[in-house]
Specification:
By secondary structure, the protein is mostly helical. The protein has one domain. The chain is built from 8 helices and 2 strands; from the N terminus they run βαααβααααα. Helix 2 packs antiparallel against helix 6, helix 2 runs parallel beside helix 7 and helix 3 packs across helix 6. The longest helix is centred in the last third of the chain and has 52 residues. The radius of gyration is 27 Å and the shape is elongated. The N terminus and C terminus are likely disordered.
Length: about 290
């Protein structure tokens, strides 16, 4: 297998009879998520451009309207969930902006390298790889369970339980943001009604009509922007991140259970390809691999 095909195999796999070397580290993609930031910036930019083209931006600044929408949205969403759920949701939302994701195909190849090392020198040899796996806690725990000699069924049950628990947490956080995206426009409508009541109650004083009308219109504007431009995209991004994380952890689980059962790496390759997307499936034992099995 040539080292240039994937970042994961920067170090050559072990040769028969020479022991096992630790596979190279996976290289996570870190930094700000370009798609999210570019999309949000473009949406906000279009809105600001439209606002500026029709007059002064100061006309769109109204603290009471902003307080009704933002404060009301947070209060109603908190009432629907709990303080812990709210804190977790905003924490997860911040994480999707600074992503650290792994390529599923590279993860699959990493598990193939670990499987070959365990096949040639026994599962105990994977203890030497543990220090290099601390950057990925789930993989570190998976390999630790293998090296401790736990039965394969116990390894599978423990890891799958963690996958399901992690997915449930992300799903709940996405639900919190979805709920907030639905509440924000409603709070904008409530602010509009408040402004209209104030305006109608002060028709005898022309000086109050302008501020009341601004409150009536701007709360609807703030609610629509906050709900559809900020909260809804973050909820969708969090759902996608939860799916990607579940896929990576599932690949780790399949690989760990296969290694614990001391299965042939060729079988592991087939198992991994059953969960990988069609365009990301691996061909570890192909014509370019002179070592074969």
């Amino acid at each position: 297998m040539t080292a240039t095909r994937e970042n994961v195999s920067r170090e050559a796999p072990p040769r028969a009879g020479t022991g096992a070397t630790a596979p190279a580290k996976l290289r996570p993609r870190s930094g700000f998520d370009a798609a999210t930031l570019v999309g949000l910036a473009a949406a906000v930019g279009v809105i600001v451009l439209a606002m500026a083209s029709g007059g002064s931006l100061r006309a769109f600044l109204d603290p009471p309207s902003l307080l009704i929408v933002v404060g009301g949205t947070l209060a109603v969403t908190t009432a629907s969930y709990s303080l812990g759920d709210m804190a977790a949701a905003w924490s997860h939302a911040a994480q999707v902006l600074v992503q650290t994701t792994l390529d599923p195909r590279s993860v699959a190849r990493q598990m193939m390298l670990l499987a070959e090392a365990a096949r040639r020198a026994g599962p105990e040899v994977l203890k030497s790889t543990l220090p290099d796996l601390r950057h990925e806690p789930f993989l570190h725990r998976s390999v630790t369970l293998i090296t401790e000699g736990l039965p394969p069924d116990d390894v599978e049950r423990m890891l799958m339980g963690e996958v399901e628990a992690g997915g449930a947490g992300r799903a709940k956080s996405a639900g919190v943001l979805r709920r907030a995206s639905e509440v924000a426009p409603a709070m904008g409508l409530i602010g509009t009604l408040v402004g209209l009541v104030q305006m109608l109650g002060g028709l005898n004083d022309p000086s109050t009509i302008g501020p009341s009308m601004a409150l009536a219109l701007l709360t609807t504007f703030y609610g629509a922007v906050f709900g559809n431009v900020v909260l809804a995209p973050l909820a969708a991004k969090l759902e996608r991140a939860a799916e990607d994380e579940a896929l990576v952890k599932t690949l780790y689980t399949i690989g760990a259970v296969s290694i614990a059962r001391q299965e042939n790496p060729r079988r592991l390759e087939m198992l991994l390809n059953t969960v990988l997307p069609p365009g990301r499936r691996i061909r570890y034992f192909d014509k370019e691999s002179p070592r074969g099995a």
